[in-house]
Amino acid sequence: MTIGKVHTATEVGRNDPTHTEEHRILIVGKVAAKEQERLLRRFDVATANITKAAEHIERELSVPVESKASLNVASEIRAHSRSLDSKAVDFVRERINSGDDLSVSAVLGAPSYLSGLSDEMRTVLTRQWHERQNPALVQRLTLMRATLDKLNTDAGKVFIEMEKAVGADPSKVRNIGAAHEAAQAALRIEPTV
């Protein structure tokens, strides 16, 4: 709709016999600059809001897991995981995939060294667990990221479309504006004393 206003201004300017092509470009260029600024502000606001919401979801998907097992059972599950050495990660992934809340919370709800995992792997597995438990949240995050990509791609198109609507590139509009200002300044007569 904003770019449509600029196209309309261009058509109106072309149909006005009192304006030269340069005068039309100058007038429409000013309209385009205001509309472009308004449109880009909307992109900025939308991007900031979506980014903030996505960051919130990212934090939700990364919160530490709380252990839900009794102290004795949790200790046994962690000891079993630790005894698996390099296969501990596979064990936890199997528990995640099966939805075994008790085992997953016992392993991920305690310091990683108690289960034979590295801190990095615990972080990765915690994220996988939250994603498995909250598929709707993951879907929202995916949509937000796609929307942000689309906004970033389309924001650049605003400049191209405005240039098409004006019928001249921004440097030509600036040059015409500078020439117009110089002419206006030269025509002002200073009062003599």
Structural overview:
This protein is an all-alpha fold and 193 residues long. The protein is 78% helix and 0% strand. The protein is rod-shaped.
Largest sheet: none
Low-pLDDT residue spans: none
Total of DSSP H or I helical runs spanning 4+ residues: 8
- Rounded to an integer, what's the Rg over CA atoms? 31 Å
Rounded average pLDDT: 89
Strand content: under 5%
Q: Based on CA inertia axes, which overall geometry fits?
A: rod-shaped
Fold topology:
Elements: H1 2-14, H2 21-60, H3 71-83, H4 88-98, H5 101-108, H6 119-133, H7 135-166, H8 170-187
Helix pairs in contact: 1-2, 1-7, 2-7, 2-8, 3-4, 3-5, 4-6
Provide keyphrases for this structure.
193 residues, mainly alpha
Structure summarized in a few sentences:
78% of the residues lie in helices and 0% in strands.
